[in-house]
Amino acid sequence: MLKFVTVSRQPPHRRAAETRRQDFDEIYDPFQDAEAGSQASRCSQCGVPFCQSGCPIDNNIPDWLRLAAEGRLKDAYEVSAATSTMPEICGRICPQDRLCEGSCVIEQSGHGTVTIGAVEQYITETAFKEGWVREVRPAREREESVGIIGSGPAGLTAAEKLRERGYKVTVYDRADRPGGLLTYGIPGFKLEKPIVMRRVERLERGGVKFETGCDVGGSVKFSDIRARHDAILIATGVYQARDLSVPGVGSDGVVPALDYLTASNRIGFGDKVADFDSGKLNAAGKHVVVIGGGDTAMDCVRTAIRQDALSVSCVYRRDRMNMPGSAREVANAEEEGITFEWLSSPLAVLSEGNDVSGLKVQRMRLGAPGPDGRQGIEAIDGATGTLKAGLVIKALGFEPEDLPTLFGLPELKVSRWGTIRVNPSTYETNEPGVYAAGDIMRGASLVVWGIHDGLKAAEGIHAQLSARATPAQKTRSHEEAVA
């Protein structure tokens, strides 16, 4: 260990931009054994591990880095898996530059952060290859059942942890495949879909039931689902796109980001997608403009370039330093040929007939900081521009659906933003036996925060159902634990 002085930071090899923009394969080559061990050995094993405190799920990062450096990979996997239900996914898609790696002590000292995410991915991929990833097998079966609505990171995490404790778990999802945004929202060049399906299949083999195509609040009543189970976890995520309020936004060729990404991911699965075939959700041969500055916007621009768009631009109202998306993703996008229109805000969608032909933008400048310390923006008088566009993608973020109305729960308490209110200790809502986790509870956020919430919600559900268990059940549970 402590080799950060003599061993330089070396991230995984990244495929050349001209090569990777031709396909949807992941752009980073995985670490080989020697690379992973060498990079893990750079950890300073500091007394106060800021990398761990910078991780939402409190991963024991220095411990599994040390074990990986020593070649004790099975032990490293056990430590990693003790706090995360999907470390190989977080290793791929977490914005480490804003979390663990950004908090690394040696990064602050100028030696370059440890490549934590790449080593995390390497450890778990090795575990799958070697057969160290065990099936979900509870020590005993319980009588209680839990229904989980939504199969994104929060729902899958809670399902795993509750099944490990022996609960009968059924996951309901309106889509035709589980995984939520992991499946349909994140492109394959960041997360190849067999990686997600492998986790789903492991849960299925462990006894978790999935009911896909189940539109709770639509064709299926929430009350019917609630009646089947002893507890319910709402983990639906937030899918309602924020809209753009400018003239011409209703023109053909203006589409929501999630519709666009879902169509692309379905094509990757080999599905037939009518709107893709018709060109509505296909960037091929078009000038594409994406409006937004988050990771979803980066996913859209990088997808469009792979669909053979004529040009791809990203319009964001602030500058590069104030962009909410991952700096790593911005750099990847620039390498792949995307143009960024910083300090630009949409004024109007231009059209020929009813077809999009361009986007008029207002040039902006940063103003004085607001109460939150973030600089405001203000328009520069007379400074406008026009971008050619045959496809405009709105990537302005997501908001919750009106679940109290949708689920027929008018008393369900929500915040002023529409997210579900929960007890922060138990994740239970004001409706007894109904819990919430993930984006529907905290607002659109990171996958790792969904995992965090799924872990906490599973703990809250288990605590309540255990407290309700009969004396005979408690005695049997104690005897089996002792045995």
From TrEMBL:
Pfam hit, one: Pyr_redox_2
UniProt keyword annotation of Metal-binding present: yes
UniProt-listed InterPro entries: DPD_II, FAD/NAD-bd_sf, FAD/NAD-binding_dom, GltD-like, Helical_ferredxn
Lineage: superkingdom: Bacteria
UniProt KW Oxidoreductase keyword: yes
The Dihydroprymidine dehydrogenase domain, residue ranges: 20-131
Gene3D superfamilies: Alpha-helical ferredoxin, FAD/NAD(P)-binding domain, NAD(P)-binding Rossmann-like Domain
Domain FAD/NAD(P)-binding: 146-447
Gene Ontology MF term list: 4 iron, 4 sulfur cluster binding; metal ion binding; oxidoreductase activity
Alphabetic keyword roster: 4Fe-4S, Iron, Iron-sulfur, Metal-binding, Oxidoreductase
Protein name stated in the entry: NAD(P)-dependent oxidoreductase
Organism: Parvularcula marina
